[in-house]
Amino acid sequence: MPGLIASLRVAHYFEDSPQAASRPGAVTLVLPDLHLKLETDRGVFSPERIDLGTRVLLESVPPPPAEGDLLDLGCGYGPIALTMATRAPAATVWAVDVNRRSLELCARNATAARLDKVRSMHVDEVPQDVRFAAIWSNPAIRIGKPALHAMLTRWLSRLVPGGSAYLVVQKHLGADSLQRWLTSEGFPASRHSSRSSYRILKVSAASGGSEG
Ligand SMILES: C[S@@+](CC[C@H](N)C(=O)[O-])C[C@H]1O[C@@H](n2cnc3c(N)ncnc32)[C@H](O)[C@@H]1O
């Protein structure tokens, strides 16, 4: 039976080191202000096309702060991080993930786009003292509620006072309950906009300031 169980093992895009054999591909990210070809691969999130939620986020958010440190939480192959870096060329964009294949792709895509202020790295490698002026994310809802909550608390606590996060979440994957939970945890969350089946949540830094 162990062989059968092993063969039924489901691969997840949020694995640290994807087991799926590599099959390089490419997608095009076209927005009113940019046009980027991005390398993708199996074992990462949405390798065949830019995810619709990601697109809705990038078409809805206000421009990022022009300077400082910005965060793409769960960068995948980098569509959000590279858009932030294009819109805020003087800022440093931290593109973090747990999936090593995604991180390599994101780094390569940033280099190809000549966006040399993108720092693509594992979540545990970001220096502890960095604080973010903005966070944009298509968060990994499918990791489950406890892990999602821990991930969001970890990074939202590192917003600078007055900083904001924009999160895209599908309605049927719990956008409204996530909004309520964030607010109850001291991160005031509101609905910035809504399109198709997606909500864009705006989350403000906790009033006590960022974690020291
Ligand atoms: C919904 S995908 C979005 C990917 C990319 N930003 C995009 O828009 O195409 C979520 C990403 O979060 C990553 N992820 C999963 N668990 C994470 C964690 N604990 N911390 C940071 N990223 C995580 C996944 O590996 C995945 O790349």
UniProtKB/TrEMBL annotation:
Biological process terms in GO annotation: methylation
InterPro entries (alphabetical): RsmC/RlmG, SAM-dependent_MTases_sf, Small_mtfrase_dom
Pfam families for this protein: MTS
Keywords for the protein's UniProt record, in alphabetical order: Methyltransferase, Transferase
GO molecular function: S-adenosylmethionine-dependent methyltransferase activity
Residues covered by the Methyltransferase small domain: 36-178
Xref: PANTHER family: RIBOSOMAL RNA SMALL SUBUNIT METHYLTRANSFERASE C
Protein's name according to its UniProt entry: 16S RNA G1207 methylase RsmC
Organism, as annotated: Sinosporangium siamense
